[in-house]
């Protein structure tokens, strides 16, 4: 099977969606399928093919770090896709490359699969001013309805996808396919370097959050809860890994809360270094309720980090409560979870880490790729039947 995947960002830029697509590409290739990634890249001046990835020239979006926007119609690009001759087109974005994917689908009369990764109700503020928020939601819902209605099959990493698309007026079946994450073994020398550089001696509790630093991630809430927990555990540290428009505001908040010595903003880090920061941490913590199925959280679980997750009913299934993660609803809950972990002995912490890692391996590559191939096959059959 030949699969063309369209995305607005790909390596070397890192994000949960990029990680998902990289894993999908690797697993399809490993199972004997051919894959072409088509992506926008502000880093290239001309079309560039590398390792079955077509990088297309794009204009950088300043508000969304690492993303670029390109023309949704290109005959040159279309000819490259025609030469590849995909059996199925898989759109993993709704913007410039997604629109190009729609055009290519219609022009080539190919089956199309659409994956919705994001709860866009939490992101309209990046496009519309606050006074137009209600119009922004209406316009976004209509836009996503048009895209989804043209797909032969629709995928989402969480049941939230179905809820969102229903609000958009989409009644088609949604396939929920959980994200997976692969984390290589850490480089112990690098882990020790990280710990030494940040004054970690192994006795303190170290929390970690990885993600885009945007308002929708509620990092300010996490920091506020963390500042309260510091009153009993003054040596505790919090890694905030990633970049985004809220970076400077969050650094100012750290000063206001007087926790700037306990919160470590790393900025964007190489994807290969994520495993080492996770290995240097004890817990993965998030107050975000905008996630679909956080790949970064899954990477934390794969590294053995118990997750502290703010209650989000629609996404609660992502952790196995009590085994891979714990839920908090408010500041007091959060502080209690920190108290409980801090009371554990080094041996109990090590045992917990191994237990979480084992639980995280329950849903892996075999189940993921089997489900994806099943959906692609269904899209092809459905398209052929309709034709």
Descriptive notes:
This protein has helices at 16-30, 75-84, 96-108, 133-149, 160-167, 188-197, 219-229, 247-256, 274-279, 295-302, 331-342, 346-360, 365-386; strands spanning 2-7, 34-41, 48-50, 53-57, 59-60, 68-69, 88-91, 112-115, 153-156, 174-176, 206-210, 237-241, 263-267, 283-286, 306-310, 325-328. It is α/β, with parallel strands linked by helices and 387 residues long. The strands form three sheets. Strands 3-4-2-1-7-8-9-10 form an eight-stranded mixed beta sheet, sandwiched between helices. A six-stranded parallel beta sheet has the order 13-12-11-14-15-16, with helices on both faces. Strand 5 (59-60) and strand 6 form a beta hairpin. Helix 7 crosses helix 11 (331-342). The protein starts with a strand and ends with a helix. The model has no long low-confidence stretch (mean pLDDT 91).
SSE layout:
Elements: E1 2-7, H1 16-30, E2 34-41, E3 48-50, E4 53-57, E5 59-60, E6 68-69, H2 75-84, E7 88-91, H3 96-108, E8 112-115, H4 133-149, E9 153-156, H5 160-167, E10 174-176, H6 188-197, E11 206-210, H7 219-229, E12 237-241, H8 247-256, E13 263-267, H9 274-279, E14 283-286, H10 295-302, E15 306-310, E16 325-328, H11 331-342, H12 346-360, H13 365-386
Parallel strand pairs: 1-2, 1-7, 2-4, 7-8, 8-9, 9-10, 11-12, 11-14, 12-13, 14-15, 15-16
Antiparallel strand pairs: 3-4, 5-6
